[in-house]
């Protein structure tokens, strides 16, 4: 009744390709997402800073 577990077959070449493709595509998408978020965040901060000066009626700093 104590039988040995069945051996797990090795992954096929197609399966290996699929796993690697998924890993690289996911990594590339993640990098693009992070860079896009960073650009959005910097743009938003610049707009908010400008808006705060305008709302208070203060003169805009020279570095804007």
UniProtKB/TrEMBL annotation:
What name does the UniProt record give this protein?
Answer: Uncharacterized protein
